[in-house]
Amino acid sequence: MTLDWLLERFAGAPDGLAFVHEGRSVRYGELLRQVAAFEQRLAREGVHAGQRVVVLGDYTPEAFALLLALARNGNVVIPLTRESVVELSAALSVSGCEWIFEFAAGAVEPTLTWSPVEVDNTTMREFIAGGAPGLVFFSSGSTGRPKGILHDLGRVAGKFVKPRSPVVAVPFLMFDHFGGFNTILAITSSLGTVVSVAERSVASVCAAIETYRVTLLPTTPSFLNLLLAARAHEAYDLSSLQRISYGTEVMPQATLDRLARALPNVVLQQTYGLSEVGVLASKSRGDGSLWMRIGGEGFETKVVDGILWIRSEYSMVGYLNAASNFDADGWFNTQDKVEVDGDYFRILGRVTDLINVGGQKVYPTEIEEVIMTLPNIVDVAVFAEANPLLGQMIVARVVLAQPEPVDGVKSRIRQACRAALAAYKVPAKVVIATEPIHTARHKKSRRADPAR
């Protein structure tokens, strides 16, 4: 599928506000002209259809226009940031490359460099031969080498042919994240406004919401927890917000409850998606509930042995450097453990996050839920450390609102966990965090070394 329909939609609303980037407004008519200018540059520079092109930057009007121009030119686009989950050299060793466009900080015109990296990859070679525009993302690599995920860009965009209600939104997820690309397409295909920020700090995002009357904030539970801890909802006028959607990690019930109290007029919507299959339509059972219905047009779901499987019309073409998680009938194993209640699901966590204590399986989130209810606890990450007797032991790294002796914190946590959980789920070790327990992408890090 080409993107002609998207550009035709832009042409029908030339005065509509497409982007506000660091105070600079760009309307849909200007965005169209930027796409055309990049198409001319691609022809002038000899960037041919089927070539693989890295775009190094973040969401700006120009970067988005370049992505559209490359898609229309039939290229395979590899979006990366300077905080990507994978180093440039490692990414290119998986995907290969011919060209690199790089946006310097604050620049509207990218540099273009011929940087060929040859990789003999059957999946990529066969896809390029088909002539469709492509898109490559990389997994976080939390359990090993990051996986290269190849998508048909036209198929991904086709989900948005049917327009939705326009919104004013901050694209919180990054340029090299499937969810971020999904957000940008959702906003622009409905002729909404993208409010992009230079940094995704609580202060920057909240200031943008206040200044530009943002109506939708798609973000992560970790960011929302930071927002509440900073009391940013009291320092900034967030009254324009109509909806907050959250995903990419499990939301603690305590954080959701606090958020509902802090922003009672905002609809809180849990979302669910994976880079391999796309972002599913979702509906929370209620603002204060972690149960949700997921699916929508083009998606099917089923649960096998407590694990969620998805079949999607928007699935990836394939991994570039890993075996497929799809079965012969096109069902994808998400590796997410779920509970089911009628049409509703509750995500418990990834199977890969399980802690094995003497043969007993423990999900970190169920322990974090208990700890987050305690006073003076701002955040917590539960993870495993090796233990010679039990195989693994449970460690809780906590962030405190105010300094407190570790012995007192440990006693309170153990007492609360013993009252609510089985004995083997009580943390054997409690550590006071001296640095953030989330990544630069505001996703909780459950590593013994959170800096990794």
UniProtKB/TrEMBL annotation:
Domain AMP-dependent synthetase/ligase: 10-305
Coiled coil (residue ranges): none
Domain AMP-binding enzyme C-terminal: 366-435
Superkingdom of the source species: Bacteria
One term of GO molecular function: ligase activity
Keyword set, alphabetical order: Ligase
Tagged with keyword Transcription regulation: no
Cited InterPro entries: AMP-bd_C, AMP-bd_C_sf, AMP-binding_CS, AMP-dep_synth/lig_dom, ANL_N_sf
Family, as annotated: Belongs to the ATP-dependent AMP-binding enzyme family.
Protein name: Long-chain fatty acid--CoA ligase
